[in-house]
């Protein structure tokens, strides 16, 4: 929570709810613009006083999965727009995302696996994410070159030869995200989002 607040507080209004008074004091000294509230994230009265229904994002980042899940469910019910929760147990991640209770379940284990996969893949791979406990992967790769030097640049999506079980889901061109229709021509510096079984 401290590191996230530090990275966000210069651009956004950030509030931290900290249960322990001593830690709340430390956080208020360590942060410049962040408001630190000493209290319980499951305290409905405090959440309403802080206008939780007007919050863009609520992040539950304790080391306790159950506390993160319960506070996230409460906050979502009270009207927060987007709810993100740190969850370590795979069973909880799948359950919360499938139920639609939590918008984003953050799994440190999956993030670590994704980082390792991107490192192993190297080359023009920007990011790799393991999906559904390794049953599939989403890979973001960059297309380089021209029609003479590249196997994908200058070709349409349907002309690109991909390994079995691989599909191009989307193409990111500058700030534009396009669904990968069969007739879209891939250009130099396009980011391709690939899904692999």
In short:
The chain is α/β, with parallel strands linked by helices.
Any low-confidence stretches, pLDDT <50, length ≥5?
A: none
Largest sheet: 5 strands, antiparallel
Order of helices and strands: HEHEHEHEHEHEEEEE
The main sheet orders its strands as 6-7-10-8-9
- Number of H/I helices: 6
Q: What would the principal axes of the Cα set say about the shape?
A: elongated
Summing up helix and strand content along with how strands pair, one would put the structural category as alpha/beta
Amino- and carboxy-terminal Cα gap: 34 Å
**How large is the share of residues in beta strands?**
25-35%
What is the strand tally?
10
The helix content, as a percent range, equals: 25-40%
Mean pLDDT: 85
> What is the CA-based Rg, rounded?
21 Å
What is the multimeric organization of the chains shown? single chain
Give a structural overview:
The protein is an alpha/beta fold and 197 residues long. Helix content is 30%, strand content 26%. The strands form three sheets. It has a five-stranded antiparallel β-sheet. The model has no long low-confidence stretch (mean pLDDT 85).
Output the keywords:
197 residues, alpha/beta, three-stranded parallel β-sheet, 10 strands
